[in-house]
């Protein structure tokens, strides 16, 4: 399975754009890249998913280069409530389910 | 109000006792999953199920058992064979599984402490 590597922690200030990069060097052809957000003592929440190029939704953008060996989650104008752990995942289809390989994630801390 | 629920939120058990964690969803999802999360760590897959009466082992199935008698329910039993059961347990569901774009929706979790 594709192993993901992302920074352990990042600090930012309110109103700034935050970019979290994840590397997944051995990503396979049928793997999708998904990002989740998790607050303490809660289940992860889906943020965005992509396969290649750029994907944008109401909360974030996801940039994936042509070789797909990395991806970057972009959070525009963060606020204090964006303080959370962000997981980069490579979703592999396995039989009847989807295997999500969770790394340790990136702890984002947003300050005033 | 659709969603995925887990109960209880906190659970305490004595060492050597089996304990069952509940997971229910009314999203009409076919696939369901159980994960374990330890402090400062990511999630590890315990079991998953695509359809009723069928389930598969994940990465760390030893010491756990599941059943899928109903589409909306996927209970997890932590048995006395599990060496380090104290952890945060998360249940998830997805529309069908087996598809690359399928998104998992997580419940609020159950924090199990074995004394």
How would you portray this structure in words?
The complex is a heterodimer of chains A (112) and B (115). Chain A contains no helices and 10 strands. With 112 residues, chain A is an all-beta fold. In chain A, a hairpin with a 4-residue loop joins β5 and β6. Chain B has 115 residues and is an all-beta fold. Chain B is built from no helices and 11 strands. Chain B starts with a strand and ends with a strand. The chains are: A mainly beta (112), B mainly beta (115). Chains A and B meet through β4, β8 and β9 of A and β4, β5, β9 and β10 of B.
Put the structure in a nutshell.
The complex is a heterodimer of chains A (112) and B (115). Chain A has strands spanning 9-13, 18-23, 32-38, 45-50, 53-56, 61-64, 70-75, 84-94, 97-100, 106-111.
Number of strands of chain B: 11
Largest sheet of chain A: 6 strands, mixed
Order of helices and strands of chain B: EEEEEEEEEEE
- Assembly category: heterodimer
Q: Give me the secondary-structure category of chain B.
A: mainly beta
Work out the number of β strands of chain A: 10
Mean pLDDT of chain A: 89
Through-space gap between termini of chain B: 36 Å
Any chance you could write out the topology, listing elements then pairs?
The complex is a heterodimer of chains A (112) and B (115).
Chain A: E1 9-13, E2 18-23, E3 32-38, E4 45-50, E5 53-56, E6 61-64, E7 70-75, E8 84-94, E9 97-100, E10 106-111
Chain B: E1 4-7, E2 10-13, E3 19-25, E4 31-37, E5 43-49, E6 56-57, E7 64-66, E8 76-78, E9 87-94, E10 105-106, E11 110-114
């Amino acid at each position: 399975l594709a192993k993901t590597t992302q920074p352990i922690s990042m600090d930012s200030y309110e109103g700034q754009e935050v970019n979290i990069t994840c590397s997944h060097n051995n990503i396979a052809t049928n793997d999708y890249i998904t990002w989740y957000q998790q607050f303490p003592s809660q289940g992860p929440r889906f943020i965005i998913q992509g396969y290649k190029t750029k994907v944008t939704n109401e909360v974030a953008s996801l940039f994936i280069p042509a070789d797909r060996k990395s991806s970057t989650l972009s959070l525009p104008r963060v606020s204090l409530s964006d303080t959370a752990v962000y997981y980069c995942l490579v979703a592999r289809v396995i039989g009847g389910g989807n295997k999500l390989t969770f790394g340790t994630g990136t702890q984002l801390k947003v300050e005033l | 109000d659709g969603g995925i629920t887990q109960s209880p939120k906190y659970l305490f058990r004595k060492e050597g006792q089996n304990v069952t964690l509940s997971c229910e969803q009314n999203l009409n999802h076919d696939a369901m999953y159980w994960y374990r999360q330890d402090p400062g760590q990511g999630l590890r897959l315990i079991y998953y199920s695509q359809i009723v009466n069928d389930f598969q082992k994940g990465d760390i199935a030893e010491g756990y058992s599941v059943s899928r008698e109903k589409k909306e329910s996927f209970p997890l039993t932590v048995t006395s064979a599990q060496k380090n059961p104290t952890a945060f347990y998360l249940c998830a569901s997805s529309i069908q599984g087996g598809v690359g774009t399928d998104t998992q929706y997580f419940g609020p979790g159950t924090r199990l402490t074995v004394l």
